[in-house]
Amino acid sequence: MGILEQLISAASQGVKARRQQVPLADLEARLGQRDHDRPFGEALTRPGMSLICEYKRKSPSAGAIAPGVELPDQVRAYEAGGAAALSVLTDETHFDGDLADLATARASCGLPILRKDFVVDEYQLYEAAVNGADAVLLIVAVLGDDRLRDFQLRAAELDLDCLVEVHDEPELDRALESGAEVIGINNRNLDTGVVDIQTTYDLITDVPAGKTVVSESGISNREELVELERVGVDAALIGESLMRSEDPAEMVKLLAGMGDATSEHFLP
Fold this sequence. Notes:
This protein is of the alpha/beta class and about 270 residues long.
């Protein structure tokens, strides 16, 4: 079984177990208790390169990333540094995440929150909505065309934005055909773990004008962000380098180019 297959299998098993503990009807009953939403997609289109700063405890490739770094402290640092949004890993099996992390993050800052997980079931959209997320990650490699389209429609009904993730041209074509508005280009091959930022440069030329583009994985310095913005990337999702930083607020400021001329969008 490949890495991606393992991730999907674990996600499916997790959904099955949680659905037995908390029926969908219970989640639907809690929808009315949600507080005001924090528009995720809008946060990515503000002037300059928007940063989606991620909180994750570990990953299959890196193992434990930053033991002892507490979620409330980290997300407050991200907000203080000028992050546009948060990404919070909720996968338990491979990333040591927890659904409760969404509520903790929401109580700790005012940023819009992306639930980053392997969404394989509509049930997870309801989980995201009632636990404090403003957006969900939908990975094209994980979903068939029908579910990719249907999950976006259901997410919209739940006032959730979608970051639709692709890694190659066929996946990008499928994402666009599904009506995706926010396209995440993952520089990491989920099967091999290999990261190559060139993936973003190769794919962005095929993204139509008017779509929001997010580059994901392998970004760690301001120079990379400047070049990505130059070619039309709207936002970048950065996790591991921020989690390992001794001063994440300052690092976010440096990555965002606070105070320098590159903080404005480049003209095409």
